[in-house]
Amino acid sequence: MTGKLTVEDLSLEGRRVFVRVDYNVPLKESAVTDDRRIRASLATIEHILRSGGRPLLASHLGRPKGRKVQELSLRPVAGTLASLIRARVRFVEDCVGPEAERASAALREGEVLLLENLRFHPEEEKNDESFARQLASLADLYVNDAFGAAHRAHASTAGICKFMSQAAAGFLMEREIKMLSRLIGEPERPYVAILGGAKVSDKIPVARNLLPCLDGLLVGGAMSFTFLKARGVPVGASLVERDQMDVAVSLLRDAASQGARVLLPEDHIVIPAGVEPATPRPTLGPGIEEGQRGVDVGPRTVAAFRSAISTARTILWNGPLGWFEHPPFDLGTRQIAEEIACSRGFTVVGGGDSAAAVSAFGLESRFSHVSTGGGASLEFLSGATLPGVGALTDRR
Ligand code: ADP
Ligand code: MG
For residue 142, what are the β-bridge partners? Predict the structure, then answer.
């Protein structure tokens, strides 16, 4: 990884290692409903254990806003972790203070300690120095494997590094950076990006940064209505971000001048706005009538996108192409996901909802990389240095 220490560079024998993981997982009645992020952390934890180190795991979960919220306790996650790893998993009800210190001191070889939700303390998100120092005092070494939180400068991702002798990237962090870097370095061409999802403002910086090396920019999902509207196409009652229309126009202009072909939807699946249950129907062209709203891309759009995808050697996909949580409006997203899965090129999915869709379609293993970070992958692809990566120790 670009100039930073990784967990393999550390002498771990007998050392306590503070591992920042991303266990911000969905819970339903105290049960973990999606353990992908926990599984993604296992390689690093197992490596530390095998090397004689003692891992202390820390994560945030949800938005407790600096207070102890019982529903956002990481305790159930300790149970899930214990079922996935061959080690004893201990849990302590605070991430700093006397109890955490005692638990850290008592940690034996072959055991893992999970600390309680970092965000129960307001100092975590404020990147508070003395809180960072308290976290650091629990261990000898630091490893950051929480790619999904690396775009935040918080005490456990940034501040803590100052107080540790060595701060290294974990395997997941390393892999994320390596894979995503292939999308901004010198990607094999043709290079196609498919952008969808809800918010134009989230995705524009990525499109801007990638434009110079993109051959095709395929825009679908709710964000496409802002682009269509900006081009003067009627979109009925579909979601439009009016304050992003100028940005959309300028992006279309830049794409044209830089030789990237932009594909906007040629047709849609629409339903009458405000009527439930509604009967979906396809439109004849890109325009949408008054009172109708687009909920998925139509068959002609899918065909056009598929053909662009089939010849690409590098493919980035971020953002569902329709209201995929409500079948049958997942069809466009599913068909595009399947087309990408069939590609023999380098294929990456970014974004929490897109990754969930790929997993629901059972296509995860057929992508070169499914990023575990939503916001973090977008920030990375927009060219920013992630604070959680920047803070790691430089390799000499
Ligand atoms: P990701 O998390 O993959 O980056 P986003 O968060 O940007 O994706 O967007 C995902 C959301 O966008 C989903 O909830 C999906 O239902 C919604 N969405 C996409 N297209 C439409 C549409 N045409 N109408 C309503 N919702 C849509
Ligand atoms: Mg999302």
Answer: 18, 167
